[in-house]
Amino acid sequence: MSEFSNVRVKKAANIYYDGKVTSRVITFADGTTKTLGIMMPGDYEFGTEKKELMEILSGEVSVLLPGSEEWQVIEPGSSFEVPADSKFGIKIGTVTDYCCSYLD
């Protein structure tokens, strides 16, 4: 899906790592949420509350998922899942556009 219809968008951005990672929350009519964001090159670690599906729209990304010792390359147009209540590492090689879905 390349665009979303009939959503609410939070005006205030989520800003992490001194502005190197930003996102905006969109909420659908059924109450589900996603964030749309940009990550600048760097190495980051994030924690999850809910299970997440991260779609990489563009950029160079490697991810270290919970329980893994090996970094995985994630190609643009691909996605990865992160379990709830966990942490994951992510390395960004070039400016990266992403969409994160929060799953129950």
UniProtKB/TrEMBL annotation:
Please give the Pfam families that the UniProt record associates with this protein: Ppnp (PF06865)
Question: Gene Ontology terms, cellular component aspect?
Answer: cytosol
Q: What class of enzyme is it?
A: transferase
| Enzyme Commission identifier(s) | 2.4.2.1, 2.4.2.2
HAMAP family assigned: Nucleos_phosphorylase_PpnP
Family classification: Belongs to the nucleoside phosphorylase PpnP family.
Q: What is this protein called?
A: Pyrimidine/purine nucleoside phosphorylase
According to its UniProt entry, this protein's organism is Candidatus Electrothrix aarhusensis
Question: Which taxonomic lineage does the organism of this UniProt entry have?
Answer: Bacteria, Pseudomonadati, Thermodesulfobacteriota, Desulfobulbia, Desulfobulbales
Task: Give me the gene this protein comes from.
Answer: ppnP
